[in-house]
Amino acid sequence: MKGNRRLYETLFEGFVSPSFHFSTSSSQSYTLYNMSHLRFKVVEEAFKKRPTFVAPSTERPSAYFGKYVFNKEKMNRYLSADTYEKLTKAIEQGAPLTMDIADEVAKGMKQWAMDMGATHCTHWFQPLTEGTAEKHDAFVEHDGEGGMIEHFSGKQLIQQEPDASSFPNGGIRSTFEARGYSAWDPSSPVFIIGDTLMIPTVFIAYTGEALDYKAPLKKSLGAIDTAATAVAQLFDEKVTRVTTNLGWEQEYFLVDEGLYAARPDLLLTGRTLMGHESSKNQQMDDHYFGAIPERVGEFMKELEIRSLELGIPCKTRHNEVAPNQFELAPIYEECNLAIDHNMLFMMIMRNVARKHGFRCLLHEKPFAGINGSGKHNNWSLTTDTGTLLHAPGKTPEENLRFVTFIVETLMGVYRHNGLLKASIMSATNAHRLGGGEAPPAIISSFLGEQISKLLNEIEGSHDNQHLTLDSKHGVQLDIPQIPELMVDNTDRNRTSPFAFTGNRFEFRAVGSSANCASAMIALNTAVAEALTNFRKRVDERMANGMNKTEAILEVLREDIRTCRPIHFDGNGYSEEWQEEAKRRGLDCETSAPIVFDRYLDNQTIEMFENMKVMNRHELEARNEIKWETYFKKIQIESRVLGDLCMNHIIPVATKYQTLLATNVHKMQCAFDDAELIEQLTCYNVDLIKKINKHTKFIAEAVDEMVEKRKEVNQIQNVRSKAIAYHDEVAPYLESIRFHIDRLELIVEDDMWTLPKYRELLFIR
After folding, report:
1. What is the tens place of the pLDDT at every residue in 155-195?
2. Which of 77, 467, 689, 702 has its CA 20 to 30 A from that of 265?
3. Fold for domain 615-764?
4. Are 501 and 492 in contact (CB under 8 A)?
5. For 474, phi and psi rounded to 5 degrees?
6. Interatomic CA distance for residues 753 and 188, integer angstroms
7. Exposed, middle or buried by CB within 10 Å (0-12, 13-18, 19+), for 741?
8. What pLDDT digit, counting tens, does each position of 543-594 carry?
9. CA 525 to CA 523: how far, in whole Å?
10. Which CATH code fits 222-614?
11. Long-range contacts for 56-63 (Cβ within 8 Å, ≥24 apart)?
12. What are the residue ranges spanned by the domains of the chain?
């Protein structure tokens, strides 16, 4: 018993007030007594907490923006003019850096970092774990005379070997192999956190295959740059480069740290595996865009300050729909940089939340019965001449370009709709998709009334008589199908996974905990393939003597007809759409392990290889990691739920059942009138029977789940094991939860050990 007591003391040390002491009463069951009392203690502590006020900065945000970033202003100050010029060229144009230049950059970077108080450096990379990784090295070397000197070379800047054998193995290399290299990504600026210089890098195997998200992301950005530039030049020969933009919207929950600590399921899985919904949840919509609670407001203030100091351009903050759910969104940025900033932001969120007595929940569905959290990805393309390619123009030619990029984006999404779903699918996001607040697990695109009508007119038209040739201006456009367009004012469709929103597409299905790179790799590559194919077919027609505009329109008509199945403006939650999507040939699979198969379709492999983003070997390896990650998450949840059932739920329910039985027995002893005894005890007897029904089911189901898990664990094939966990183990989680939630309504509140939804969601 002393060992158990010490375990609880250690587990909750630091989560609750120092004034809270574990009881030494010997007359009570230690675990039940202290866990039930822990719940009320942490609730009391949470109610007492006051905002941790953040002193307002004496500077304007513009003055401290990028304070801890080695940006162009710092480069210009710490580097020679020649080194600065060559580094800028490498960043903006992808020019290679020689070791001599790298040494000069490293020298200036080290001096800046040391001036800022840094003593260590690390290559900061993004392995296939949805998180980031780092290994810190100090700025010290032997001076040869028994002392130390500060040293940081170009070789250390450009490449490191992080000994990363513990990261998921997936066929590229085995877990017993530690050969992995990280290489500096100059396009993403280095920054300082604490005493450490953080260097964004790619992570590759010793044989060159990508072991991270950043390497294939950068290749996908290169692919769409090449393809989109070629198409944009049909309309403007001055275009030499196309940049992909990304604006993410990060949703999250905040839970008081003490309450979080008293919920082992939250602590170990990121979500509540049980919990009856509160009488009041989000029915009144009073939280959405409501006044930000003061304690949360101070957290947001510090979060924004820390983010701005690290160059993250925070713009919008607000309450989300669910209680204790919030959102922050930055100004859009270049895609690679935006993803780095999102990964950094999620790290900052967790750290700042703890300073304010919160835990930040990034799980897509931490609470049942209320909205989950997503991370909408607002995606667009911009030329180096300043043209937003998905924005309507003022002339027929500009709008023809606009239509071209809209249609070819839809072509990419249509041909690879299953792959796009696979790119955002996970064990955690599967809880959210189709949940009434998130897009369904069927990829479709909403365009709005105006654009839909325009595409229909173009598709149905065969009239090119309004094309005239002007000797001075080339083709003079007078196309009735391409009128002057206004930014679409159609109401947004929240059920659409991929919606057009005026000058960009919003990929709404991305999960809150995900690395955006997964979705962007798939989307960029799919659209790059579509644009490449478009330009090829237009060139073929022009080579055969067809007018450029006529050739473009003819290809567009073909593609509008081809990709029509992906266009859907209706209610994505409706049963009718489920059936209609099947008739259209869209991917309607909902099982995550099977959805991952889309990465290994022949057309997917062909696309990635043709666009030089990933090869078959890399795709196969990544899928092994996806399947392994999936079944391990379900495995952990199953183990946690089983432990909670046997150590918390059933003992509490049984104890309350005993109290009821004692009451019934005493009534029977106190009275002789059978009818009166029946009246006095019928309710409690009914409760005793209900408790027995629920606890019996839970105990038997847990035993069955454990045996099933043992059976499934014997499966060697990782795909088959993931499918078995989805089909045979995961269903136990919901069936057991149902009975636990019924018990929560029956058992006396004072005896229930775990903080309830009303406490987790409404104490701020």
Report:
1. 888 887 776 555 665 556 665 665 678 889 999 999 999 99
2. 689
3. Four Helix Bundle (Hemerythrin (Met), subunit A) (1.20.120)
4. yes
5. 75, -135
6. 47
7. middle
8. 999 999 999 999 999 999 999 999 999 999 899 999 999 999 999 999 999 9
9. 5
10. 3.30.590.10
11. 56/301, 57/305, 61/308
12. 1-48, 61-212, 222-614, 615-764
Place of tokens 């010490």: 6
How many Cα atoms sit within 13 Å of 388 on the Cβ side? 16
- Which of 133, 122, 124 minimizes the C-alpha distance to 168? 133
Residue-wise burial string across 603-622, b where 16 or more C-beta atoms lie within 10 A, e elsewhere: ebbebbeebebbeeebbbbb
Entry pTM: 0.91
Q: How far apart are the C-alpha atoms of 760 and 740, rounded to whole Å?
A: 17
What is 61-212's CATH number, 3.10.20.70, 2.40.320.10, 3.50.50.60, 3.30.70.330?
3.10.20.70
Give the CA diameter of the chain.
113
If you compute the radius of gyration of the chain from its CA atoms, what whole number of angstroms results?
A: 30
- Answer yes or no: are the C-beta atoms of 212 and 134 closer than 8 Å: no
Taking each helix axis as running N to C, give the angle between helix 30-48 and helix 2-12, from 0 to 180 degrees, rounded to the nearest 10: 20
What pairs with residue 376 in β-bridges?
249
DSSP label at residue 275? -
**613 and 409 Cβ atoms separated by less than 8 Å:** no
Q: What are phi and psi of 187, to 5 degrees?
A: -75, -10
Total residues belonging to the chain:
764
Tokens, residue 425: 């699918």
